[in-house]
Amino acid sequence: MRAFMIGLSVAVGRFVEALFWAIFRVAGVVAGIAILGVLGLAAAWVIGRRIWKRKR
Question: Is the dihedral of CA 26, 28, 29, 31 positive or negative?
Fold first, then answer.
């Protein structure tokens, strides 16, 4: 019975570790997309201002 409890404890520990890594991976992807989105908007704003100034 003890070996089963140790095995179960290791399995639960590995599951929780995998769950944390998955959460961190998803959070990293979301943060990366958000940063790229902000950079894209900033670039579009700068380009739009330059085009607007040329038309005037």
Answer: positive
